[in-house]
Amino acid sequence: MNKQSRYMLRQNLSYYKNLIKYGITKLHSTVSDNYIVFESYGGKKATDSVRAIYDELQKDEKFRSFYFVWAFTDPAAHFDLLENHHTILVKKGTSAYRRYYASARYWINNITVADYLKPRKTQIYIETWHGTPLKRLGCDIETDSDPRQTRSHMHRRYRAKGKKVTFFPSPSPYYSEKIASAFAIGDPSVKFVASGYPRNDKLFHYTSEEIQKKKEALHIPEGKKVLLYTPTWRDSSLDENGAFSLPDGFDVNVLMDMLGSDYILLFRAHHQIGSAKIKDNPVIYDVSDVESVNDLYLVSDLMITDYSSTMFDYANLMRPMVFHMYDADSYEQDVRGLYLSPEELPGPITKTEQELVDAIHRQECEFPYRDKQLEFNQKFNPYEDGNSGKRVIDMCLRALPHKRTLYERFVNYTKKTLNRMRILWLLLRYNVRGFFRSHGMFHNNNSLRLERLKDIHKGERCFLIGNGPSLTGEDLHLLKDEYTFGTNMVYKIFDKTDWRPSFHCVSDTIYASKLGIELSKMVKAPLFTTERTYRRMRKKPVDTTYVHTIPTERYKVRGNIQAYCMIKATVLSLAAEMAFHMGFKEIYLLGVDCTNPHDKGGHFTDNYTTKEVAETDINRIKTRMHANTLTTKQIGEHIIDRSMEVYALLDSYAKKHNIHIYNATRGGNLEIFPRVKLEDVLSKKMEESK
Residue 662: in which H helix or E strand, if any? Predict the structure, then answer.
């Protein structure tokens, strides 16, 4: 079995294995309208037109509710993307990767998706492709030059790829014609949109200051002439490791020796090339790993290329180009051939180092191909004007109606119906049972304790103590004679104050299961919790009263805690509702900063909780948000948003029932309740007592 046969066998086995896995994933997935999957260069980078569209969507307010899923071979190398709005990273080939492709309404790629990924009829696949073709592509290749596959197999793959695509953003009629032919698409008008390449928008919007900063980032010395070399790959140069390499025939070191020290060469290898064979040379910079090739276009004075499609993008800058085709004869005959004739190229063609040096000097002095380059742009870049990204969004994402298949509509209707039935059952169950409990029926010891607590402090005031960074032992010391509700792990501050809470509240099941024993040792005050949390406690405190809860996101304050209580986001919701139940009419919040609890300085002490508890809580948030990875900032935003919803509902209930809630926290982000100073509140009481 030869190398080609072995490669195709491995590919086929992998294809069918992944096809089965993807088919199973599709069976239990439905399409979500607000999810977009991005993949660039097979998951190696976050660049090209894919990145340009993503950046444009980040700025568009109409897409603020969307989730942007990036697929990478190494997600850890792209954690910087997580700082952006609603961005999710997944590892290519994983179950999450298949799930997002199966359920995202939009796919955006630049080298076609994996063969086994087949979009549903209601999914929209935008193939930006990575370059205008100069060399023959796909079904137009008439030679068996690719050692990985036969020509017939390659043609079948390209025809299958072409059928998947919904839209091809196009920079020119030439592009539409050639890509349609390469992918065996009969009518280009069906799939091609006259938008231009989104990645080239930056070539129309830049300043000299920006170019200077880019040069400094690349450590390019002042006063040097910058050459950019962008060779393409050869189908016949597959090495033993399954990667392509540059053929022998051109030595860039010889070129730079001939040009002298006034020049810097930026070498940009094609993404298919595994080894560039570039020796250490102070005037040759290997910039193959630079994410955006546009940055390299902007800092260069002249581009050297061979058969690379980079010429079409670079032409937008109206800067000189030289085409060094040292293997032109063999490439045309033995590799794959060209769409364009040499006469159409907007620059000189060279075959030797000396010819290349002469052409570089001539281009720098005269730029004799300026008029030809203008004609070149008119033919190959007529849709390029710096607004391509916006056009792609308008033409491919906004304009198309989202029609669901009969199967999708059935599945969604079934899910909604079952969820409604679940909610209805919960409400009936808890309302009926709660009705009996609130009317003195089916009492147990817990419900009797709740009943005795009803209006026990009617008309009095209390303080609800959060665990924010503003909390101090000095402040708590002032509350020794007040009714106070401690929460969660406030006992961590006991070593700094003589204050102890009158009551203590815990609603989080993670705290209960992981830290319940510690809690029972440190807190001696009556404990208020939920039934679910109470059951998770390994050691149950003797003086514990629990409330029944409804596990639903539809949080409402009903003021009938004997029946049930709806807990959401923050333990302060339980503390506040217990205060309502006990008849307190003045409620003051202290240490309620509404900061990110998982960020440094999120609590009154950095030693607030264990790493295990924090990680468990973060994983819970990820599950709730359907995200594999989240930044600390995203976690904080989620927690704060949910907490603010609760505080708004508590405020609404309090106003209706003539209960006054004030925020005595020093600083923080909570502005729903009127601000007061703790000293003023306490001094007022002292004056009244006198």
Answer: strand 660-663
Residue 498 in this model has a pLDDT that exceeds 50: yes
Question: Position of tokens 């860039």?
Answer: 252
Phi-psi region of 38 (alpha: psi -120 to 50; beta: other; left: phi over 0): beta
Q: What is the pLDDT of residues 466-489, one digit of tens each?
A: 999 999 988 898 998 899 999 999
Tokens for 294, please give them: 């546009």
Alpha carbons 635 and 599: distance in angstroms, whole number: 9
CA atoms of 308 and 230, how far apart (whole Å): 7
Q: Which of 283-292, 544-553, 658-667 has the lowest mean pLDDT?
A: 544-553
Is this model's pTM higher than 0.85 or not? no
**What's the CA gap between 240 and 353, in Å, rounded?**
29
Topology given in CATH for the domain delimited by 3-196: Rossmann fold (3.40.50)
- What's the CATH number of domain 443-689, 3.90.1480, 1.10.3470, 3.30.565, 1.10.150? 3.90.1480
pLDDT given at position 244: 44
Distance of CA 623 to the CA centre of its chain: 15
pLDDT of residue 281: 81
State pLDDT tens for residues 77-128: 898 898 888 999 999 989 999 999 999 999 999 988 998 999 988 899 999 9
- In the beta sheet, which residues pair with residue 509? none
Q: Give residue-wise pLDDT tens across range 228-281.
A: 998 886 655 445 544 445 556 678 888 888 998 899 999 988 755 544 456 678
Q: Is the dihedral of CA 380, 386, 389, 394 positive or negative?
A: negative
**Contact 591/470 with Cβ under 8 angstroms?**
yes
- CATH number for domain 207-369, candidates 3.90.79.10, 3.20.20.140, 3.40.50.12580, 3.90.1170.50: 3.40.50.12580
Residue pair 290/327 in contact (Cβ under 8 Å)? The answer is no
The Cα–Cα gap between 100 and 578 comes to 42
* pLDDT band at 685; cut points 50, 70, 90: low
- Of residues 518, 489, 494, the one with CA closest to residue 505: 489
Helix (H, G, I), strand (E, B) or coil at 607: coil
* Strand 321-324 to 349-350 pairing: parallel
Measured between alpha carbons, how far is 321 from 315 in angstroms, rounded to an integer?
8
How far apart CA 135 and CA 618 sit, in angstroms, is 50
